[in-house]
Amino acid sequence: MKAPALEFSSRARRDLDEVRDWTIQNWSEGQWRAYYRGFAIAFRRIAADPDCGRPREPLGKGMRSLAYEKHLIFFAPVSDVGGAVVILRIIHQRRNFTALTYLDDLEG
C-alpha cells in the first residue's frame, strides 16, 4: 500500500526554519544537520503511518502529534489538499501548544 502524500503548511516550514536558525546559532551547522536527519526520519514515519503518535482531537479533527527530541510535530489529514497528511506545526515541547494556530494558512 502506498503511503499518503505528505505536505507542509507554511507555518510548519517557518517553524522548521526557526529551529534550524536557533540550532545553528546556539550549537552548530553540524548539529543542525544531525537534528534534521532525525526530523526526516519522523516525517517518513508520519507519511508511512498517519495514525502514529498521540491523538490531539481537541486541537483539530484528526490531528495527531509525534514527539521528536524536544519538539512536537503536529499533523493531520486535510481534505482541502486532497486528504494528504499535512505537517501543521513543529514546536518546542515547552510551548503552550493549545494557544497556537494550526489550520489557518494551508495552501491548497
Automatic annotation (TrEMBL):
Q: Which Gene3D superfamilies does the record associate with it?
A: RelE-like
Output the Pfam families linked to this UniProt entry: ParE_toxin
Q: Which UniProt keywords apply?
A: Toxin-antitoxin system
The record, for InterPro entries, names: RelE/ParE_toxin, RelE/ParE_toxin_dom_sf
Q: What is this protein called?
A: Plasmid stabilization protein ParE
